[in-house]
Write a structure and sequence with these properties.
The structure is a single chain. The chain contains 3 helices and 5 strands. It is α+β, with helices and mostly antiparallel strands and 123 residues long. It has a single domain, classed as Periplasmic binding protein-like II (D-Maltodextrin-Binding Protein, domain 2, 3-Layer(aba) Sandwich). The strands form 2 sheets. Strands 4-1-5 form a 3-stranded antiparallel β-sheet, with helices on one face. Strands 2-3 form a two-stranded parallel sheet. The longest helix has 12 residues, at 55-66.
Length: 123
């Protein structure tokens, strides 16, 4: 018996950037996640990373890599790597930015990044 002769992708996970409602860097006006992360980096705005080697964390790091920057929590004080999942639950009352799954039912803040094929993870 042979399996997997024809792959049909029909499900995906998507990722979004969420941040403070005040939107201190006017990120909601950006047309890409890449320019949003560049604004966060250039303005030293607080960004919290899962830092747990999960799919979400790997997607976040791939986006940073796409803009030729790799944040280091030791030298970039605006970048916090917490080393565990469900970052969005712990960050509701802070002024920080987080990349999270768009399907996360715990989102209470406004998504700031627009849809991008780069933010889809097909499976």
């Amino acid at each position: 018996m042979r399996f997997g002769l024809y792959r049909k992708e029909f499900m995906y996970n998507d990722y979004i950037l969420v941040g403070p409602k005040s939107d201190p860097a006017l990120l909601k006006n950006n047309i890409s996640i890449e320019s949003a992360l560049e604004n966060i980096h250039n303005n030293g705005l607080l960004f919290i990373s899962r830092g747990d080697d999960s799919g979400t964390n790997k997607k976040e790091l791939s986006i940073w890599n796409k803009i030729n920057f790799l944040p280091n929590p030791q030298t970039h004080k605006w970048y916090l790597s917490v080393g565990q999942g469900m970052v969005i639950k712990r960050t509701r009352n802070k002024n920080e930015f987080v990349i999270t799954s768009g399907r996360d039912g715990h989102i209470r803040r406004r998504p700031l990044s627009c849809a991008s094929f780069f933010l889809l993870d097909w499976y």
